[in-house]
Amino acid sequence: MILHGGEPLLAGPARLRRVCEELTSAFEGVAELDLRIHTNGLQLSPRYLDLFDEFGVRVGISLDGDRAANDRHRRYADGRSSHPLVLKAVELLRQERYRHLYLGLLCTVDIENDPRAVLDALAELDPPLIDFLLPHATWDDPPPRPGGSPTAYADWLLTVFDHWQERGRPVPVRLFSSVLSTLGGGPSLTESLGLAPTDLVVVETDGQLEQVDSLKSAYEGAAATGFDVFTHAFDEVAAHPGVRARQLGLAGVSETCRQCPVVRSCGGGLYTHRYRSTGPSDAFDNPSVYCADLAALVRGIEARTATALAAPAVTGPVELVAAQQDLTRTLLALLNADIGQRGGEQWEAAWELAAGIEASEEGARGLNEVLAHPYTRTWLLDAMEPVRERSGAVDVVHRMSACLASAVVRAGLDLFVRVPFSGGRIFLPGLGELRMADEGESGAALLIATEDGFLVRREGGDAAERRIVRPDAAGPGWRPLRRIPTPGSAAGFVLDDLDPYRDCFSLPAAGALDERAAAGLAARIGEAWTLIGTKAPGRTEEMAGRLTTLTPLTGLPPAEPAVGRHGYGALGIAPDASSEQLASALLRGFRRAELQALRDVTDLYAADGSWEHRMPWQEETVPFSRLLTDTYERMALGVFDRRYLEGVPQALDALEGAAELTIDGKQLLHRMRKEI
């Protein structure tokens, strides 16, 4: 609830107290009341501020900059400056006892003022927020443009932006924050920009319910709804055609705006500023009278910040792998926070052991390898829900302990790890499966690394029952994951047909392969890799070390890959595919997995599905995400058949002109153009 005007302090302290009491009472037990007042500050005094402190009313002040800027439009009728009194009001708000009520400063742009001096004057007052507003204007009554520049307001604001950057962004500026947010794929932060629906209704002093009051600058009665507080509900105002028109997002802007690449950021501008009395039947179905300014402002901010704002994950494979690792570690930390005391002593012991493992360089490397295993992410995502539902903590402890045991084995650490098990088996992520007891039995095993592999024995069992296991060789009770060497990659591929968390694709995971089937599939994967390396060695270099895990699926077409709900580096493949089909699946699947990994850590596009795009290689229109994915994959498949590259340049042009692209999406597109 914003007490607005005119000048609301003219109501006086007594009446404002009644307003605050009435609103506070009405909302008590119904909703949390966020009460604010917007004032020019001339009458602000401790008497008012004590009242506002009592009711939690936060105060915004209108101030257009330094004295010269303020006095251009805000003098008394007798010519005296109002600037000293506004500064006095702000100084009151900055006092320790009132500082929590200080909402910020609102500045109306006047391009006759010095933009740098305006920012300096406002920032000197240490506001929590500065809000710059374009002066109300329409096509019938356009804004003044001394010199006739179509982008005079953008030029003024960009000068402010540059100075704001030079000063180290000393205070948040809502206008700039909104543009930066939408450029990165986030929401708009102000009514005057972006496609977010407006949620404002004005209650006039006589009880009339009106649309946003800026509409009054369009024409007489433009804000009227015909409703009042005595006989109508707010729901009726929400259903009013004028209000609904500003809640339609992209559908609520003109056709010209819908086709403009910056519409996600500018949103067609403030609804009021679109008014033109002549033209379409809907007088607001126009671009903003500030259209050229808004486009120049968005593009200017993007040009100034794109390099700094781009996620490193988009520009380099090493950074993408690091970002994925950070994401997995964040999920693990969240799981630890969620599990709390429900994990009991076993979880606490496992968490302490993890810290001990990571304390050494070898241990940290081993733990990183386990966390990089794609199905570790699957486990973490699956674990979050049952833990939050206050169940499933036991299963979480089992997998966590197995992960730590795998890290110890990889690092060769002289540390005992206790691993609980059920079903008679333990799966060590990325290594293989241990049979500890008969099917259905539960218990725990103790593992420790040795020079040749690791020692394992059942807890409470006879010491003579212990056995040494070599991770890469089958033995009694031990089934290792098959490793497929690939030239140019020290790690090669893991053929994972055992991990219980591998079943995370759209099609079911195949059962464990017998030795003959596994050997045949491994041989064909090796041939596929050689085939890719012969035709395009750059592709194998791209995939080496990043595509790590292949899982056989049932029902998958031979040349098709599958990307599931897991971390970076795994693909589902058809176990009966030929080497040529596998080569195609690896190329296509790696590109698909890379896009998914990028989307995990940054926004490449926003508002997907709001526009339809035609793909050059077929008549079907598709959302932006589909056009991007198909183009990205076809560029890789062009290795085997250059016909896949037909239409790709046109697709890149379509992608580049799309409104959905974010700063990171444009970085990716730049990379794609270099590649093609």
UniProtKB/TrEMBL annotation:
SUPFAM superfamilies: Radical SAM enzymes. It comes from the Bacteria. CDD domains: Radical_SAM. This is FxsB family radical SAM/SPASM domain protein.
